[in-house]
Amino acid sequence: MSKRDKIFEEGNVSGLPFTFNQEVTEVFEDMIDRSVPGYSTSLKVIQEQTKKHFITQSNVYDLGCSLGASTTSLLNAISEQSKVIAIDSSEPMIRSCHDRFKKQIREDLVEFINEDITNSAIDNASVVVINFVLQFLKIEERTLLFKKIYNGLIPGGILILSEKVHFSSERKTKEVSNIYHSFKSKNGYTKLEISSKRDSLEGVLVTETEDQHITRAKEVGFKNSNKLMSNLNFLTYKFKKI
Ligand code: GEK
User: Which member of 48, 70, 99, 168 has the lowest number of beta carbons within 10 Å of its beta carbon?
Assistant: First the structure.
């Protein structure tokens, strides 16, 4: 288990926007566990859906892999003739992810790539996972990435997308966000930590509505979309290429 996340205990003292640096990498497991409702369920959903939709000898992608939690779910669901391609733009994250897998027997089944997913090639894919990552891309990059994924999927292939969202009603967004803050405070974050992290994420993590995600998926060609999980303002979707 990683170190406890105390990054914003004293407030956002650096005043800097949030980045996935070494300090965040070291506490990442604890941070995501205490900050994302349904995160561990999303990993199980990825494994189950991959078992169902994986096609032999295809590629499987984990875009924005962090420390490889979704990569592990993918590995548990595919056959050994296939590869998981795990990509992250943060150098400390991908290095630490690779180090963890070195300790496992199946390291050779993962290709670790340190690059921006907007530049990645997607090819012969049956499963592509974006687990809480799209929200960090510029809006215009999101559609281009979706187009690239759609084109790189083989027929029958799926995109699994998890995101933090907001709602078209401001009142609902406020209501759910208050519940979300009490979820974080029950998980041991103080009011100062919650508000400092929120300030630091301003303009870095940009949410959209559920409708915007579905519309984008339809626009690039996905005919089939299914909500797999919903926890407060955190959702998981499956988009299938027919
Ligand atoms: C999990 N999926 O455990 N290109 C590549 N990586 C990026 C980019 C980008 N443009 N932008 C952000 N990242 C993981 C959790 S965390 C979610 C994903 C969170 C990477 C970033 O470096 C970080 O590792 C990850 O996306 C986001 O299932 O922190 O809320």
Answer: 168
Range of the domain at 216: 39-165+207-240
Decide whether any atom of ligand 1 lies within 6 Å of the 113 Cβ: no
Cα Rg of the chain (Å, integer): 17
Q: What angle do CA 209, 215, 219 make, to 5 degrees?
A: 150
32 lines ligand 1 (CB under 6 A): yes
Q: Determine, yes or no, domain membership for 16.
A: no
- Number of domains within the chain: 1
Amino acid at 45: V
Please state the pTM of the whole predicted model: 0.97
CATH code of the domain containing 230: 3.40.50.150
Pocket flag, ligand 1, residue 18 (CB < 6 Å): no
Q: How far does Cα 71 stand from its chain's mean position?
A: 11
Residue 166's SS3 state is coil
Q: What is the pLDDT along the chain (242 residues), one digit of tens a residue?
A: 679 999 998 888 888 899 999 999 999 999 999 999 999 999 999 999 999 999 999 999 999 999 999 999 999 999 878 889 999 999 999 999 999 988 775 667 899 999 999 999 999 999 999 999 999 999 999 999 999 999 999 999 999 999 999 999 999 999 999 999 999 999 999 999 999 999 999 999 999 999 999 999 999 999 989 999 999 999 999 999 99
Between CA 136 and CA 130 the distance in angstroms is: 11
